[in-house]
Design brief:
- By secondary structure, this protein is mainly α.
- Helix content is about 65%, strand content about 0%.
- The chain has helices at about 15-40, 45-90, 95, 105-110, 120-130, 135-140.
- The protein is elongated.
- The two termini are about 25 Å apart.
- The model has no long low-confidence stretch (mean pLDDT about 95).
Length: about 150
């Protein structure tokens, strides 16, 4: 991943380009379909209705994908905070300094581990620099379910 540009007041606003594209294609699709309704007796009108329907349908599918991606990104941020707080409470002093160095994929993989196995698992993840969340999840022996996911 590229190094992000440092944020400040002038550049902190995020413009969701994907969402803007979905909104614009939906609007264009609605305009096409409504225009086609006024010209329904012509071939052009039928094509406009069809084009509008395809644009709105495609936008809906892409919009649902974006919404899901936004939900999981937010969930990852919540997991990061939740697991860091949990680690601060249960890790021994020698591992406390490592908490800020854990990446989001590592924290996501660790979240299912029980408190008892967490220190050894964190040591292993750090020592072997394991970044794959699936690999970390497979190392969990006493699985603690997460039933409040998005």
């Amino acid at each position: 991943m590229a190094t992000p540009i440092p944020q400040n007041f002038d550049n902190h606003v995020m413009i969701p380009k994907g969402l803007i594209k979905v909104i614009l294609s939906t609007l264009v699709g609605i305009i096409c379909a409504v225009t086609g309704l006024f010209m329904v007796k012509s071939t052009t009108g039928i094509y406009l209705i069809g084009t509008g329907t395809v644009l709105v349908g495609g936008s809906a599918i892409i919009g649902l994908g974006l919404a899901r991606r936004y939900c999981t990104k937010l969930q990852d941020r919540v997991i990061r905070l939740e697991v860091r707080i949990r680690l601060e409470k249960i890790l021994p002093a020698d591992l406390q300094a490592a908490i800020p160095t854990l990446t989001i994929p590592q924290l996501i993989g660790l979240r299912f581990a029980s408190d008892a196995e967490m220190p050894d698992l964190v040591r292993k993840v750090i020592a072997e620099n394991i970044e794959d969340r699936t690999a970390i999840k497979k190392m969990v022996k006493d699985w603690q379910g997460d039933y409040d996911r998005v």
